[in-house]
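Suppose a classmate hands you a notebook page containing two proteins, each written out with its sequence and a corresponding row of structure tokens. How would you begin to make sense of it? This section walks through that situation. The first entry is reproduced here exactly as it would appear on such a page.
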Amino acid sequence: MAFQVSPGVNTSEIDLTGAVVAAATSTGGFAGRFRWGPIEEVTLVTDEDQLVKQFQKPDDNNHEHFFTAANFLGYTNALNLVRAANTTSSNAAAPLNAAANTAAYANLQVRTSEHYYTSFDPEQGGAEGGGAQNYVNDGPFMAKWAGSLGNSLKVSICPGDRPEATLTGTVAWTVATGAIAGTGTLFDIELRVGDAVSIAGETGYHIVTAITSNVACVMFSTDSTDNANVSAGAAVTRRKRSAFSTSSTFLKGTVAVAADAATVTGTGTLFDSQLVVGDTITINGESKRVKTITSNVAIVTSENFLITATAQTYTREWEYKGAFAEGPPTTSAYATDKQMSLDEIHVAVVDEDGDWSGSIGEVLEAHANLSVASGAKDTQGEDVFYKNYVNKTSRYIWWLNHPSIKGFSGAVQDLAGNGTLFTPAATGDATLRGWGATADAGGAQTADEFANPSQPLTLSLQGGSDGTAPSDADLIRGYDYLKSAEDVDVSLIMCGSHSSTVIRHVIGNIAESRKDCVAFFSPEKADVVGVTSSSTATDNVVDARNTVNQNTSYAVMDSGWKRGFDKHNDKFRYMPLNGDIAGLCARTDTDRDPFFSPAGFTRGQIKGVVNLPYNPKKAERDKLYQSQVNPVVSFPGEGTLLFGDKTQLTKPSAFDRINVRRLFILLEKAIANAARFQLFEFNDEFTRAQFVSMVEPFLRDIQGRGGIQDFLVVCDDSNNTPEVVDSNRFQGDIFIKPSRAINFIQLNFVAVRSGVEFSEVVGAV
């Protein structure tokens, strides 16, 4: 209170309304093998749909781990998941040059987004996998995460729609060499390799194969009837070549193709004037890429057609056009404002083999109207530079690199080496703006166009591998990402089908270290599945418990596995039960409170059980319970139940029960969080009273809900002695009488003679 010189009234506020807020006790934690997703990074998963979306469906190699997580999510909605993987797992990639397929991308593994940017992104100095990242040798695409699923991915790029235009100047053409000599021409600005041009007086059109200077270029004829040179003075026109915008037009003539063949013959067709190598054609619903144009009535495709087709009309189109309602890519407003053109591309990420969607060729992602201009923004100011946009938004691919700023630097082939998709401009070509260049006009590069190819570019990813199963060391490293209570909120940790080595680490180095969570584990599959003798299975389970050999209240063991249905693969599988047992605890938190037992007919019902391979009887349950193993039992007409609530603590104690251990985790976590606000305050009567006034209402609430029978909070001079105060410590002692769950019911039925009053015998028996 401020000092007052003259009489007056001064007011002040003292806040004694601090309260203890209940702490979360239902969040799960698990580390295991999955087919997709970041490696050694904690991901919060809220339901099975998200689990599948981020980590993909189970397979024969990982289903035990997948269903540990999925079964837990069947009871609650919060699981901190870590994907563990061996170093032998690798990302699929798509080098552009066939010769670099195996050499450039061997055993690449991107673990996290941060790992990509620091180790793989060429613009950030990343050097893993390809060394100095070269567009031609190393290629533009890599699967987002390691795994064989990446091999089902294909990426197709549709370039900007170049308009038809009458070119500057006149030309002369020599048929034998394909050389064009220009007068007053601007070949190096108005043309690019792959463009289709027509020359006045010629019946067909021609494809530019090289640009030597502004007055000289080379092209090949698409019309086999051309046999005469063109004299100087002919006009030349660049034809519109957009596989996107003109593809719906049916082409002239009819075609025939044999089953399992790549040669297409035509009747009345104009293959050499209506197609270009690299075009995709569709015949009777099958789409293939044109590899060779033999004549106006014969072509060869890069893949065989599956069926026999005759007298079928055919169309020319970008096969993924239908996924883009935006129309063809052209020039962005961003580029137009900077006096540049043709910077846009469409990008389709495709499920080539159907491993993702179940449908071969389905477009997984359609990225429309991206710009190859560095720094490009859309009208809302969002970054649409193609590389940044794809890397930020795609669930499936990383875009590694782009052509050099001076244009493409070598011939680009498909992965099988089946012909040149387009022939790039020479290295150092200053007439076209390369991908990744700015859109600002002027400078050394005076052209107003970006160096897009004249037809779509489609590449398949390959080389992805699931690798060998994660070792114990890999799994332990994954679980260690759950070790810090300050970084990750975890209350229920599942051990899946992991070895005793991993289980001991999870219990001793995580659960007991954090002291705010409980670890759940099951015996090994071989202990109970396929064991014909129930007595033998019981002994196996007890031996498994003794192998783990952890005397602790921070661990819970169940008796086995269940047989459940895998809807993702339409088959039945065996699954460890510890995901379900942890889920029962989470569900109990929702239905009642953590300090209620998760076992029994009321709260212990386990979901998704087709049958139990090991269903212990009463004598076997007695043996299990004596060894701190909680039986899971199927009762006829009653379902499958958790029929025990013991921790792994061997000595008689209140903490040998799950509900008591979880009660104290709740209390300790909540009160400790609240007590943080006493840090750096004075250790005086006011602070102590404030602490007591905060804690006692919380404990009375827990008492009212049945969690504790009685409590006492001591925080005064008796435990905050001068020695404690001088050591900068603050001490509060909280005494708890926990409520106990019933494990045994004794019913005594007493027969009484007629004429005897019940009051005479009550208490006498």
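The notebook's second entry, a different protein, reads as follows.
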Amino acid sequence: MSEGISLSDLSPYARHLATESLEWSEGFWDPGSALLWSHRQDDAVLMVRNSVWFAVGLLLRNRGDDVERACRTIDAIIDNQFDEPGTPYHGTFYRYVGEPHPSEGDAVMWRTYDPNWRQFIGLGFATVLEEYEDRLPRRLIDRMIRSLEMAVVGEPPDRCPPTYSNIALMKAAMCVWVGKRIGNDEMVLYGEEFGGEVYRLFAQNNAFAEYNSPTYYGVNLYALGFWRRYLENSALHELGAYMEAELWRDIARYYHAGLGNLCGPFSRSYGMDMKHYTALTSLHIWLAFGREVTPFPGGEEINVEFNYGPCFAILGVDAPSEIAAAFSVFEGPRGIEKRITMERVATAWLDEHYMIGAEDSGGYSGRNFQYHPATIHWRMSDGETGWLALRHIGQIAAKAEAGRLSIEAEIRGEQQTEAGHPREFVFEIFSPNVAVFEGDVWRLDGLDIGIETDIAQRAVEITGTTAIVTFTAAPDQSRVKFDLSIA
């Protein structure tokens, strides 16, 4: 049996990422529970999912008592798995130690349990068994295989559609890998057919429906790396290689090396400046091209997503050689027009000192804080990146051109939601040193923006470093327009 990959086997960039991630994660290790704390404050919880990536890192390093600690962690994770056939949460895991049982809240997905823990933890377990099974006691191997089978069997067949790309790619990998391991040909066939459908949808436009997502593109690359390294004898291997290469090309197309960020629009994003939050795509840039060119935060801005490092390092990257320059030097002004689906079209303009992203969403309506259909980034006077992002819960027809962002929206519905109201158009703006909103000109640090709109009612609120400009359409308005121009 193979000895498994070690730190010395990794490329210099991969070894650096794995080592930095593992050393950072050590500070959150709890010896009593063998799990990781979520953060250092008093309200911290012991995380179940992220601890599997730490266990992978311990086995990769294999120093001192690392193997014993990894085994304890894996046992602790499995102790937090639901073995309750017939329930919608069968096979998934508690999110943290002490979390109320899902039945106490009538088992509401996302609210009382997270079904995706099956896939996130499952790929970690599969990686451990692929690389380090010979270091584990037999009883733990048996527990892991049973846990993996429960995770696959417990996944409702219609819960995760193939358009839910980051989870769908992991789901396909899980079905094929676990099916092969336990000798279940039907499970393997299902996984390959499901993965084939993910590929078919991607290949229509070389785009995932979760388009241009700085965090979830990182999960996609993780899953595709698993397809590449461990599914060599599966039909998915070749399909994954194609998607991985095309995904990297699209990332390079949107990347602005001078601003150290991906240009919008973002189907799902947890932040607007990759230099100040832990975006998983950043870890893959580090892995492929080195820390020196990677947009990555420091200090307290690093969050628990950094725990992924060893898993990413083991799987490696296969980025096309021709895109490397895009991550070190801005290659000049360019426009992008990209069809995402039959209805959705993304456009972008990247210039020397600013970039604009927009989406014509067609029938798609982003209804949470992660969706950013209209964005602007620019260089501020101190060299940091300023940004603007539109929040709106309805459909948007936005377009980016050189120096211009145009937005149209048809207002549908009147129902207030947690994410906002259909009549509200909220621009969140980061320009902490200069932010003056006078009439039709916004004077920001490093950028002036002219704005024309047919909405009369607006309100400006400045809180700390962020300005919130809210436009509220009148009751008799069914369609609104904005025209933002870079002065």
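A careful reader of the second entry would note: Residues 334-486 form one domain.
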